[in-house]
Amino acid sequence: MVESESPDRVTDVSTESARVVWVFVILAILAATQAFGFLTSPPDRDMGHLQKIMYVHVPAAWNAFLAFVVVLAASVLYLWKRDDRYDLLAASAAEVAAVLTALTIALGSIWGRPTWGVWWTWDPRLTSTAILLIIIVGYLALRGFVDEPERRARWSAAVGILGALNVPIVYMSVRWWRTLHQPQSSPSTVDPAYAWGLRLNAIAFLLVMIYLVRARYRAARLERIPEMAAEREALSGSVKNV
Amino acid sequence: MGVREAVSRVLAVAWKDLLTERRTKAGFNGVVFMSATTLLMFGFALGPDPAAIRAAAVGMLWLTVLLSGALAFNRSYELEAEAGAFDALLMYPGGRWAIFAGKLLANLAFVLLVEAITVPLAAVLYDLPVLAPLPGLITVLLLGTVGFVTLGTYYAAMASRVRAREVLLPLLLFPMLVPLLVAAVGATKAVLVGDPMGHGAGWIKLIAAFDIIFLVGTFMTFEYVVGE
User: Fold this and answer.
1) pTM, whole model, 2 decimals?
2) With contact defined as beta carbons under 8 Å apart, do A33 and A197 qualify?
3) Rounded CA separation B13/B19 (Å)
4) Alpha-carbon distance A208 to A78, whole Å?
5) What is the pLDDT of residue A178?
6) Which residues form the domain of B7?
7) Residue B165: closest C-alpha in chain A
């Protein structure tokens, strides 16, 4: 039950303008860091300007992973504290994780076609990312299929935790299975000319990720208000719902 | 609660499920027929070249087990779907984990029996040499099936109680089974075809780790799945 925070704060119109400001600030930061990455990086010896996809692909991958950690932590906290807000946070982070994971795969595929000559290859990192995407889609599908909020929260927390447990196992199994992907790009593996562009874009993506999770969380809170009202009405024995 | 009562609760649930199944046989016959059909369909999809079929045989066998076995799990809860029977089951004294363990055992027996028919059939259809390496093959099948049935029984506890259960169970279950599938196929190939690179033991360890991690994970969280 959400009792600790009144619905008024969530529906407050005065914070609307603050949100619009935040959207512009974050987009401006993202545009600036992208421009910085593009302008400061020389063309790669092998890949040429194709390398610049790294400034989106790698930050998206990192932040997708971070969003998964939020899903896991919020799921554990929900089962422990039984506070609705953790459930809604897990759901919001899962949605953002799905988008960022899909973006990572799509961009990797676009990069892989000219570099490796194929859109897709059965490489460990690619394959585990794809499985991660299906696991998170399954999690979101489960949420869509269960109407009762308390049961949905319990079930999706359990599914979220088991899914997270599986991530390292999936990775190990496909790593033993095949290997082709180049070592991950990180500031320590790329040439210094690219490192700052990568770092700054990762931070910009982190801001985008936080903004999206917050926006989805707020929407989820708003969706819960009529659900809770219906629940209260049903419990109070009103005949309207019968 | 003493160990003996706990064991007798688990066995009572398992016995009830298996007895219901034995009296109707509807589930078992359906699943066996489904697995035989799938084995044949894979053969037709790969064409008549025996070499191509033999090369893919182990993967096709495991996929057949997973695809047809998955049909068993929702069924094991649908037995109690009517007239609030599942709620009555939950009201019995003792931990809810005993219900999960009982259903797990019943499903394990069910899927192993299906495999007892599917594997010899696959050996005939795909020309697999199963007799000489039989102890190794049984070990791999047993370990792989434990992990498969653990997650299947667990996710079906949720999927069987929502609309669109036929869609939800595979959507939740199959992505989780990917490491098990990869390891089981690797281990089975090592046992049947030979293991020049010495990968077999590593794959078997991976299956065992998968089994242990998810046995612990499901037993720890099952209470949240069925509790109110």
Assistant:
1) 0.83
2) yes
3) 10
4) 25
5) 63
6) 3-226
7) A145
